[in-house]
Design goal:
This protein has 106 residues and is mainly beta. The protein is built from 1 helix and 7 strands. Helices cover 12% and strands 39% of the residues.
């Protein structure tokens, strides 16, 4: 896995991680950025054509919406939030971060 983010001055940073899917096929995965430390995540929902992903932690404390585009339509986001709530997550914890196109990821 390659994780990337925007940092100061419009640059980006990227780092490698290793992931493993749970053999049950239930959307559970474990990601490790530095052995032996790891974190568990659940894939809660996937959008049509894989254009967005709802990801949370088993303890329901962390929740992310990952998207292929920099914005999501309000009705799509409302649907994603409803899916999170239906699985016991608090959509109120989602923080909308301004996004921009990044083209210089290594």
């Amino acid at each position: 896995l390659v994780t990337s983010c925007s940092i100061a001055n419009g640059n980006s940073d990227a780092w490698n991680a290793h992931g493993k899917l749970d053999a049950s096929g239930g959307g559970k995965l474990t990601i490790s950025r530095l052995w032996p430390f790891h974190a568990n995540y659940w894939v809660l929902a996937i959008g049509p054509d894989y254009n967005w992903l709802l990801l949370g932690t088993p303890n329901h404390k962390q929740l992310w919406v990952l998207a292929k585009t920099t914005t999501l339509a309000a009705d799509v986001l409302a649907d994603i939030e409803a899916r999170a709530a239906a699985q016991g997550f608090s959509p109120a914890k989602l923080v909308k971060m301004p996004q921009h196109e990044v083209t210089n990821i290594p």
